[in-house]
Amino acid sequence: MVQLPLEDNAGDVISKAMRGADLGDTALGRLAGVSPEAVQAARKNQGDEATLRAIAPPLQLGTEALLAMARGGWLPRPVAFPDGFAMATTPFHDMTVNAYLVWDPTTKQAAAFDTGATAEPLLATLRRYGLKLEFIFLTHTHHDHIADLVTLIKTAHAPVWASEREPIAGGHSFGEGKTFEVGALRIHTLSTWGHSRGGASYVVNGLAHPLAIVGDSLFASSMGGGMESYPDAHRNNVEKVLRLPAATVLACGHGPLTTVGEELEHNPFFAQCGTPSRLL
């Protein structure tokens, strides 16, 4: 599996944190003791280390994690599943977007998560392994994640499920805590809204590694933009996603796979939260 670059850079993280804190260049500069011009440079990923050290605390960002990100010094360790998992990355305008398949290698029953720009890589994997798609799950309904949903439905003849907070026409809805069975796999739903009004994550048990498909709730070394509610987006990550076991693989909507443990150490939004020993 090719290792994808990070979705965001340090400037993106700073911009998201500023938006979440409702701080402009001048207000943040006043809190941090730096000039508005220095804050603006940091937002453009051109900040010096002194500025980053000054603005991280008022933005509640982990200072060392932010500095490491700015230096380009970290990528999550590659993760491989021997069977039962596939990641499909497709171009969408000026970015890429991820969709996923999981399946029971014995029964060949499968579930898809989002479609990306085109469902063809998912359909090719279904054909390659002789899989039967039982469910299509949506992490959220932003267009880049469901751009080819109609094709996947018509070709694979599987029902669509989404959070009751963000239902989709012709689909089924679930509340938090619903469990689905796909052969020997168990898929448990979490409400991780905030980036979108009904963002959902899916915890998958039964594969070689514990897995959570988190959509745009969280990225390696970053998080979604919190368009609906930044505080709720952040809180749901802290209280739900990052309380999963440290070895849990996080399959994000953009960028590379990562793990809970690595995000607690390296993600500027969450590194300052510490690493509870019970997660290790």
The N- and C-terminal alpha carbons lie at a distance of 26 Å
- What is the CATH superfamily classification of the largest domain? Ribonuclease Z/Hydroxyacylglutathione hydrolase-like
CATH class of the largest domain: Alpha Beta
Query: How much β-strand is present in the residues?
Result: 15-25%
Annotated CATH topology of the largest domain: Metallo-beta-lactamase, Chain A
Order of helices and strands: HHHHHEEEHEHHEEEEEEEEHEEH
Q: How many separate domains make up the residues?
A: 2
* Helix content class: 25-40%
User: So what's the overall shape?
Assistant: elongated
Oligomer: single chain
Structural class: alpha/beta
Brief summary:
The chain has 280 residues and is an alpha/beta fold. It has 2 domains: 10-71, lambda repressor-like DNA-binding domains (434 Repressor (Amino-terminal Domain)); 85-279, Ribonuclease Z/Hydroxyacylglutathione hydrolase-like (Metallo-beta-lactamase, Chain A), CATH 3.60.15.10.
Q: How would you sum up this structure, described in words?
A:
This protein is of the alpha/beta class and 280 residues long. It folds into 2 domains: 10-71, Orthogonal Bundle (434 Repressor (Amino-terminal Domain)), CATH 1.10.260; 85-279, Metallo-beta-lactamase, Chain A. 30% of the residues lie in helices and 24% in strands. The chain has helices at 10-21, 25-32, 36-43, 49-55, 63-71, 120-129, 143-146, 149-156, 230-239, 260-266; strands at residues 85-92, 95-103, 109-113, 132-137, 160-163, 172-174, 179-182, 185-191, 200-205, 211-215, 218-219, 222-223, 249-252, 258-259. Helix 2 crosses helix 3. The longest helix is centred in the N-terminal third of the chain and has 12 residues, at 10-21. Residues 274-280 have low confidence and may be disordered.
